[in-house]
Here is the input.
Amino acid sequence: MIRLYNTLSRKIEETTPADGKEFKIYNCGPTVYDYAHIGNLRTFTLQDLLNRYLRFRGFKVKMVMNVTDVDDKTIKRSKEQGMKLKEFTAKYAQEFLADLDSLGILKPDKLVYATQEIPEMIKIIEALIDKGFAYKTDDGVYFDIKKFREYGKLSKLKLKKLKTGARVNVDSYEKNNASDFALWKAWQESDGEVFWPAPFGKGRPGWHIECSAMSLEYLGKVIDIHGGGVDLVFPHHENEIAQSESFTGSHVVRHWFHSNHLIVEGRKMSKSLGNYYTLRDLQDYSTRALRLLFFSAHYRDELDFSMRSLENAGKTVKGFDEFVQKLSGCKAGGTTLEVEQLAKEAEAGFVENLDNDLDTPLMLAGLHAFFRNANKLIDSGKVTLGGAKKLLAFIERINSVLGVFRLEFSDKLSKEEEKLVNEREKARKEKDYKKSDELRQKLLKEHKIQLDDTADGFRWKRI
Ligand code: AMP
Ligand code: ZN
Here is the structure.
């Protein structure tokens, strides 16, 4: 029985799909005005953990994610860089997908771009106006929060105490500022050629309506799990509930899954504070180490990031690799009850801990105990090939969730890798340092091969 904390009820609850078979999940995706930082990527990795774990436990999953490719920031940045909005956002959307790939995050079953769903958003806004939940002004269409009686139920705002009737035209604002929010922003000169025609005047959608429209369109009126970072609880998800439920007349999201922030020296990692890293800054580290680091804290706790913690995670991953390599080298022989029992108990512990609100710190502690015991057995010669296969099969199964183990070891380079290494060596000898460095980065980034130049030639290793 999988139990997860639900932000709506503030309780840990048994989580099942409404239809008993397939979890319908909607996760808020990136705003593509820059590279994602590793704080954003922590959130996406934790959503990936849940996605993979539900599959591991035998459920089907349909996961939809949006890409915000029109908002204040994307418009401003694309202008600054002299690029058309579409070209600009396509570049960062591409980089985002590459980051997901590097981190071994499963691609969403459906990735939806906001600008491709404008008619759906217009349809909902029109219906909200017709039903009296929204009203028109000169600068756009606004949602009237006092018309939605349950406004504040997710973030636990007490509406009576709030000053209603105020309006905000920005997508993100502080909790004590609960106000009518923009569903549609009327065109202004600074938007340039970014606008869409609509019955209520040309303009562009607000951020919140985007997620209501896309989740309803691709998952229907009942969504099992909706995820995002904790900063999205208010106003984004509160507003999403108000829009979707006023539109459908019923509850839409059954379970709200919010993960906590990656912080640096006590402050949230964010673009505005400038305290962030992207994957490009961490190319010397294995992305498996970063994944492991993300799992070292519970998803509802903040995780304090430091290079040191990443280095330590790297050492642990190296230890995992040595363990797998050791197992691959066991001498011939059958399995034993003792080894089978060890694998069985370790898997039961893995399931118990993840079933319990995805308790990754306890799960990792259990895994370390497993390694200690397995190493003892291996060192005393009690694990032969048959037993090693059982242990490897266990690691392979849990790795379908964790993605932190490397199960294939090869001390040979593939043909393509060999070609790149040789080209790079040639460039280096010819003192074409630019090319040599580009090839070195390519090997590191795409093949996770690190090259070191030493007095007697270069050495390579997989990281
Ligand atoms: P954005 O691209 O800013 O819309 O953010 C994408 C996702 O990253 C959202 O789910 C945010 O809640 C999440 N997020 C933003 N900053 C952090 C952080 N420092 N740590 C973890 N998640 C974050
Ligand atoms: Zn969203």
About this structure: The chain has 13 helices and 17 strands. The domain at 3-259 is CATH 3.40.50.620 (Rossmann fold). The chain has a mean pLDDT of 94. The chain has three domains: 3-259, 264-402, 415-462.
